[in-house]
Design goal:
Length: about 325
Amino acid sequence: MSMKYDLRDIEGIGPATLEKLKSAGITTVEALAVTPPRLLMELADITEDKALKLTQRARELLGISFTTAREVLEKRNKIGYITSGCKALDSLLGKGFETQAITELIGEYGSGKTQICHQLCVTVQLPLEKGGLGAKALFIDTEGTFRPERIAQIAESFDLDPTEVLNNIIYARAYNSDHQMLLADEAARLVPENNIKLLVVDSVITHFRSEYPGREVLAVRQQKLNQHIHQLLRIADIYDVAVVVTNQIQSTPDVFFGNPNKPAGGNVLAHGSTYRIWLRKAKESRRIARIIDSPMHPEGEALFVITPAGIKDAE
Ligand code: GTP
Ligand code: MG
């Protein structure tokens, strides 16, 4: 996406406001235009009146309140695809993991969610002709399960220099849900400055579930989670980034018919994610992936294996 305008082009943004916006993670006119004024008010610590004026001016400058169908098509034509390194999984998704979208990996422990995230951090760096985007990755780790040694091992299997690959992955550990949301803000700043095309949040739900247990706080939890998902959607959309998040399975013992297991996060995640992939364990290192909740994708499954060289097509 071309960055034709600068925040300083907007009337009312002087050095002090510029600093406030920056510290709120808003560094481009595009980001300002799509931040809800009420959120902007809180994030940048400015008055409601000023927040309204600034977002309005950013929208006018970009002319983005409405657009034509042709422009929508042009933007969609820019969608990039990241190979998973596994043909079956790529074709399950169409052509691979998409930019301008959130893809959610759902599954029980050991189903391969974190392994796929690690692998994508490598494959996004491959050149276009090899299924990558020649770009960097940003990894937000909420469970402490990020393993650079594993990345290095996968990099070697793709004939890439492990040190270089590790240098191109920006990492942060999120210690609680508020921290996770701050990091997402920070990510919005880092993404355009660093040619980042993949943003991983592994897992998106853990902190929210553990900090807001029980039905009494469910509404608050869902509200915060919704805010977080929208942070991620904005990054995906404005900066043409593939966002990949992992999610857990929740069992609902009060279900009498059908599958008692369902993805955690309820409607917020179901509506926020563009694609949802459910992973199941099969024999040994085999795994089965299935797309759920997508009217655009035919029902189908992809089989893959987790090997020392990363995830691969099953023989
Ligand atoms: P949770 O985060 O616990 O919910 O699980 P997950 O879905 O993220 O599982 P993860 O991707 O961490 O692990 C999936 C499987 O990959 C496990 O059964 C591990 O045995 C396997 N695995 C993990 N690391 C390696 C590795 O370095 N080499 C190989 N060959 N397999 C690995
Ligand atoms: Mg994991």
